[in-house]
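A reminder from the course coordinator: this example appears on the midterm review sheet, so study it carefully.

Given structure:
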C-alpha cells in the first residue's frame, strides 16, 4: 500500500506535466500558423506594391527577374527593419515573412525552368544577397538625418540599380520614397503589421 500511495503523486504529476507540455506545443503550433497566415497576407501586399508600374517607368528599375527580386527585397526589408528588435509575435512574424519570400523565390525559379540541381545554389545566393541588402538598408535608414539620404541613395545604386550609371539621377528620388515609406510604416501599430495588415503609401 505505501508503494502504491507513493506512486500516485508521481503519476499524477506526470499527467499534469504532459498536459502542460502538450498545451505549450499546441500553443506554439497555432502561433506559428497564425504568423504564417499573417506573413502570407503581408507578402501579398508587398508583391502588389513592388509590382506597381511606376517603379519600372518613373523610377527606372529594370523589369527583369533581378529588378523584381530587388523590389521585393526592398519592401520586405522595410517591414523587417520596422519590426527588428521586437520579440514575441513580431519575431515569429518576421521569420514567417522571410520564409514566405524565399518559398516564393524557389517556386518562381522552378516556373522559369531552373533545374532542381541548381535551385539550392541559386536560393542560397539569393539569401546572401537578401541579408547584404537588409544590412545596407538598415544602416542607411537608421543613420543621422544628414547622412540618411546619401546612404540610401548609395545602397539603392549598388543593389536596386546594380551600379548602372544612368540610374544615378533617379536614385535620389527613389531614396526619398524609401525614407517616406519607412516613416509611414513607423506610424502603423506593431500589432497591425504582425497581423499582416500592412499599408504602403503610394510612390
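Designed residues:
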Amino acid at each position: 500500500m505505501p508503494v502504491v500511495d507513493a506512486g500516485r503523486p508521481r503519476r499524477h504529476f506526470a499527467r499534469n506535466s504532459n498536459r502542460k507540455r502538450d498545451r505549450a506545443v499546441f500553443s506554439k503550433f497555432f502561433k506559428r500558423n497564425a504568423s504564417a497566415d499573417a506573413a502570407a497576407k503581408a507578402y501579398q501586399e508587398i508583391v502588389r506594391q513592388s509590382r506597381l508600374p511606376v517603379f519600372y517607368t518613373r523610377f527606372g528599375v529594370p523589369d527583369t527577374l533581378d529588378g523584381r527580386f530587388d523590389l521585393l527585397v526592398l519592401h520586405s526589408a522595410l517591414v523587417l527593419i520596422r519590426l527588428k528588435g521586437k520579440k514575441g509575435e513580431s519575431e515569429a512574424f518576421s521569420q514567417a515573412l522571410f520564409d514566405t519570400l524565399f518559398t516564393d523565390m524557389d517556386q518562381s525559379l522552378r516556373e522559369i525552368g531552373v533545374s532542381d540541381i541548381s535551385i539550392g545554389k541559386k536560393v542560397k545566393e539569393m539569401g546572401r544577397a537578401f541579408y547584404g541588402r537588409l544590412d545596407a538598408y538598415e544602416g542607411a535608414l537608421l543613420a543621422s538625418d544628414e547622412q540618411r539620404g546619401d546612404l540610401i541613395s548609395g545602397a539603392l545604386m549598388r543593389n536596386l540599380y546594380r551600379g548602372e550609371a544612368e540610374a544615378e539621377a533617379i536614385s535620389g528620388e527613389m531614396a526619398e520614397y524609401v525614407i517616406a515609406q519607412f516613416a509611414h510604416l513607423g506610424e502603423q501599430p506593431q500589432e497591425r503589421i504582425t497581423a499582416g495588415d500592412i499599408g504602403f503609401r503610394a510612390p
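The chain is about 80% helix and 0% strand. Confidence is low (pLDDT under 50) at residues 1-17, 22-27.
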